[in-house]
Amino acid sequence: MEISARNQLKGKVTKVELGAVMANIKIEITDPNVITAVITKESAENLGLTEGDDVCAIIKSTEVIVGK
């Protein structure tokens, strides 16, 4: 999939937790770093997300904060 967003992290789904409305998707980006995406349950089901899937986390943000 080609998109214009530059803030992309490729990774592997390590856990899918479906709630009544929302879903928590754990994505391992570089061992052992993991990010959590909170998406709608409908989106998780439509994408057919399961553990072991290769995915791309696309970060959408209006600002970037840098700490040192």
Question: In short, what is this structure?
Answer:
It contains one helix and four strands. With 68 residues, the protein is mostly beta strands.
Which sequence of strands runs across the widest sheet?
Answer: 3-2-1-4
Large-scale geometry: globular
Give the N-to-C terminal Cα separation.
34 Å
Structural class: mainly beta
Tally the helices: 1
Radius of gyration: 13 Å
SSE order, one letter for each helix or strand? EEEHE
In percent, how helical is the residue content? 10-25%
Q: Give the low-confidence spans.
A: none
Task: Give an account of the 3D structure.
The protein is mostly beta strands and 68 residues long. It is built from one helix and four strands; from the N terminus they run E-E-E-H-E. The chain has one helix spanning 41-47, and strands at residues 8-18, 22-30, 33-40, 54-58. A four-stranded antiparallel sheet has the order 3-2-1-4. The mean pLDDT is 86.
Spell out the key features of this protein:
single chain, 68 residues, mainly beta, four-stranded antiparallel beta sheet, globular
